[in-house]
Amino acid sequence: MKRVAKILEAMRRDSQGIRFSDLCAVCDAHFGAPRQNRSSHRVYQMPWPGDPRVNIQEDRGFAKAYQVKQVLKAIDKLGGEHET
Questions:
Q1: Do 65 and 13 touch, CB atoms closer than 8 A?
Q2: Is 16 helix (H, G, I), strand (E, B) or coil?
Q3: So what's the pLDDT on residue 66?
Q4: How far is 2 from 46, CA to CA, in rounded Å?
Q5: In what order do the strands lie in the sheet with 41-45?
Q6: What secondary structure, in 3-state letters, does 17-81 show?
């Protein structure tokens, strides 16, 4: 999963300018299949209590910067960089 690692590295450098398809690839690799992806949103289930989901959406082909940051935070909370 070299591609996912490169995308993740780019996300950590700058949260803006990340393609939505790339963010989806990172989320799929770390969180599994989305719980919902029929609308403009993709929702991923998280294993912890509270607000156990990551919700991302496309903005003209790109990911929203604040959602990229949320994904990075969730990956860190899961215990680091690992692909499933």
A1: no
A2: coil
A3: 95
A4: 24
A5: 41-45, 53-59, 62-63
A6: CCEHHHHHHHHHHHHCCCCECCCCEEEEECCCCCCCEEEEEEECCEECHHHHHHHHHHHHHCCCC
In sequence order, which residues have a C-beta less than 8 Å from that of residue 17 and are 6 or more positions away? 62
Q: Which two tokens stand for residue 62?
A: 């790109």
Per-residue pLDDT tens digits for 38-83: 777 899 888 777 767 889 999 999 999 999 999 999 999 887 544 4
The rounded distance, in Å, linking the Cα atoms of 72 and 23 is 10
For the packed helices 20-31 and 2-13, what is the interaxial angle rounded to 10 degrees?
120
Cβ atoms < 10 Å from Cβ of 69 = 12
For 36, phi then psi, to 5°, come to -140, 135
